[in-house]
């Protein structure tokens, strides 16, 4: 059942090379946000995305956190950067060793959409995903920097 849910989550993001964006929260500079969201957001904030991927345990060398790390190490980060995302950092959760946490930054929400569409359509991503299939669940948080944050 978890593999099906993981497949469904990935399908929502990557189906037919398109990204399901309409239901995602806004992010980016204050002027792109509603009045209620922009009160404490910096006028120049980028769009930040925090993603937590919890990998299913490896079965017959398919899946597992080590394969997910290898996929990121080998090319996944580079593919995102090639399409214009800034990968701020990638972390290993210590309280949940099956979870990889990473943060990306984009100019704004529209730029995020462009990056994900280009990433999903990239043959290098398809080859990498085929080489390292990792059923996973994802938590995604969209954020804008506050007006007093040093990272914008």
Q: How many DSSP-defined strands? A: 4
Task: Classify the secondary structure makeup into a structural class.
Answer: alpha+beta
H/E topology pattern = HHEHEEHHE
Number of helices: 5
Q: How much strand?
A: 15-25%
Mean residue pLDDT = 86
Indicate the overall shape. Answer: globular
For the largest beta-sheet, the strand count, sense and barrel status come to: 4 strands, antiparallel
Spatial sequence of strands, sheet with the most strands: 2-3-1-4
Gap between N and C termini: 39 Å
| Poorly predicted segments | 1-23
The helical percent reads 25-40%
Question: Gyration radius, to the nearest Å?
Answer: 16 Å
Structure description:
Strand 2 (86-92) and strand 3 (99-106) form a beta hairpin. Helix 3 packs antiparallel against helix 5. This protein is α+β, with helices and mostly antiparallel strands. Mean pLDDT is 86; it is low at 1-23. It has a 4-stranded antiparallel beta sheet with strand order 2-3-1-4. The protein contains 5 helices and 4 strands; from the N terminus they run ααβαββααβ. The protein is globular and about 50 Å long.
């Amino acid at each position: 059942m978890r593999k099906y849910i993981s497949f469904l989550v990935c399908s929502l993001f990557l189906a037919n090379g398109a990204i399901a964006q309409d239901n995602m929260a806004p992010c980016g500079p204050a002027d792109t946000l509603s009045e209620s969201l922009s009160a404490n957001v910096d006028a120049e904030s980028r769009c930040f995305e925090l993603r937590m991927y919890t990998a299913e345990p490896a079965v017959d060398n398919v899946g597992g956190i080590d394969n997910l790390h290898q996929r990121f190490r080998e090319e996944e980060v580079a593919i995102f950067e090639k399409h214009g995302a800034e990968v701020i950092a990638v972390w290993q959760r210590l309280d949940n060793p099956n979870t990889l946490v990473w943060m990306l930054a984009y100019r704004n929400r529209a730029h995020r959409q462009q990056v994900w569409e280009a990433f999903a359509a990239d043959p290098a991503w398809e080859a990498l995903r085929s080489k390292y299939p990792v059923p996973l669940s994802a938590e995604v948080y969209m954020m804008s920097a506050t007006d007093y944050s040093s990272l914008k």
